[in-house]
Design a protein that fits this description.
Radius of gyration: 23 Å
Number of domains: 1
Structural class: mainly beta
CATH architecture: Beta Barrel
Order of helices and strands: HEEEEEEEEEE
Distance between the termini: 57 Å
CATH topology: Porin
Strand order of the largest sheet: 1-2-3-4-5-8-9-10
Length: about 160
């Protein structure tokens, strides 16, 4: 009798676990790249040598979070969180590159732009006009180069951590 009870108890546990798995909703975090309008990445921002600032080597900042948000059929905003341009900069800043241009294919979003005035704290920051913006977004990465005023050839390379429609 004890063996029968034990077998029934195990069968009930297995059945309960299996039915729980079947009743759980499917993973809602999977978003089609073709439909995504929001991309979040974590990566490295690099500022090349600038006379007097990064004299001997580029300034690299790891774990920089960037969001790319599609605004219209041809523009998107790029939000950079907690960045700075040199080791001498006493604080990090949040900056938005508004109205960057893009074209889209099934596998890639091509970024480009010229003469974009970034905003910091909601205010235009024309000292660091964005020029020569070029890059791409794929299902796996967000990569772009640009110049911020005197800081030419800056790069960001990040791994996509989140996509949303």
């Amino acid at each position: 009798m004890k063996k029968l009870f034990y077998v029934l108890a195990v069968a009930m546990i297995v059945t309960a676990c299996n039915s729980k798995d079947k009743n759980e909703p499917e993973d809602q975090t999977k978003v089609s790249f073709a439909k995504a309008t929001y991309f979040e990445a974590l990566g490295t921002n690099t500022v090349p040598n600038v006379e007097g600032e990064n004299k001997d080597m580029p300034f690299c900042m790891d774990s920089v979070r960037v969001e790319a948000v599609i605004v219209t059929d041809s523009t998107l905003d790029i939000n950079l969180y907690g960045i700075n341009f040199s080791s001498k900069m006493p604080v990090t800043i949040d900056m938005i590159i508004p109205g960057a241009k893009y074209t889209r294919t099934a596998e890639k979003i091509i970024l480009y732009g010229e003469g974009i005035i970034p905003t910091m704290g909601g205010n235009p920051f024309d000292r660091y006009v964005i020029n020569a913006l070029a890059g791409s977004i794929t299902a796996d990465s967000l990569v772009f180069t640009n110049s911020y005023g005197q800081y030419a050839g800056c790069t960001y390379a990040g791994k996509i951590t989140k996509m949303a429609e």
